[in-house]
Amino acid sequence: MRTGRPSLPLDVGPSPRRFIGMKITGDTLFTVVTDLRATVLAEHTRPLPGRDPAAVVGAAADAVRLLVADHPEVAGIGVGIGGFVVDRRDVARAHFLGWRERVPLAGLLQEATGLPAVVDNDVRALTTAEHWFGAGRGLASLLVITIGAGVGCGIVVHDRVVEGAHGGGGSIGHRPVVSSVVCEDGHRGCAQGLVSSRAITGAVAQALGRPVDHAEALRLAADGHPAARRVADDAAAALGVLVADIANLLDPQLVILTGDGIGLLDVSRPALDAALQENRKAPLAPVPLDVRPFPFTEWARGAAAVAVQEHVLGRAHPVTPA
């Protein structure tokens, strides 16, 4: 198993260097400017004009030019994207953008902006930020599990973020947790088919016979609607099985649960806890959980942390300013 860049949690001194972090979703670009400690100094959000690589790179370059005008000491760009990313350079697949072919996103951004750029899976980028600057600072092992449109995982083992040989380290969304339910990719019983926002809203909508969004589905569950309650509890229990499974395998010092679907646990936390207790392998200690929401700007900060890491460790790819 290949692991990622060496971790080196630092206490860095003041520096004029600035870093731009971007989180790309299927329709929006969230951008921040940070200092060398990944402290957010400025934010900018804009819709994507399209999902093809040219449209995404164009929007990103426009955001960079806007932010560099006020922060001229930018030393690098980091991008977090949902998908498979190889060597922090190329996006092999980005489902939410419809990218099926390899896209050299870091190179395209460097060419468009004249700044060093790195790209990483968005969950791994968030994990890097937590490992270097957040709750995981100083820990040799850490899991960051996210739920929302997808189910993702960032893994730190022996003080290193696991990338995998093909950029797929932490791909747990289709890990089986039950024997029924089929996800959109045809996998039976996987976490994605039960825990994702789409799975929850789809199951509640089917029970009600009308469309609902994720917020309404969780609100109905919180209000005690029998069908919505069952869907939410089943999803939280499946998440508990998943967390216990990965924690049994890696035995981390800390598990962070987050994502834009984390509101599920405001409704069904007891179901998660019961599944964790039932599936945690004895005599291992209870799974240490940190459950909290991260807004998309925090995911962008994670991408900036990747750029900081590349800069500090001396692996940023120099370019000639455009």
Please tag this protein with its features:
single chain; 322 residues; alpha/beta; Nucleotidyltransferase, domain 5; 9 helices; disordered C terminus
What does this structure look like?
The chain has 322 residues and is of the alpha/beta class. It folds into two domains: 3-127 and 296-312, ATPase, nucleotide binding domain (Nucleotidyltransferase, domain 5, 2-Layer Sandwich); 140-253 and 260-291, ATPase, nucleotide binding domain (Nucleotidyltransferase, domain 5), CATH 3.30.420.40. The protein has nine helices and 13 strands. Helix 7 crosses helix 8 (264-279). It is globular.
Number of structural units classed as domains? 2
Sheet with the most strands: spatial strand order: 1-11-10-9-12-13
By CATH reckoning, the class of the largest domain would read Alpha Beta
Determine the CATH superfamily of the largest domain.
ATPase, nucleotide binding domain
Number of helices: 9
- Ends distance: 38 Å
Name the average pLDDT.
Answer: 88
Based on helices, strands and strand pairing, what is the structural class? Answer: alpha/beta
- The topology string of helices and strands comes to EEEEHEEEHEHEEEHHHHEHEH
Question: What's the short story on this structure?
Answer:
With 322 residues, the protein is an alpha/beta fold. The protein has helices at residues 53-70, 105-113, 122-133, 192-195, 197-208, 214-222, 226-250, 264-279, 296-312; strands spanning 3-6, 18-24, 28-34, 40-47, 74-81, 84-86, 90-93, 117-121, 142-147, 151-157, 160-162, 255-258, 289-291.
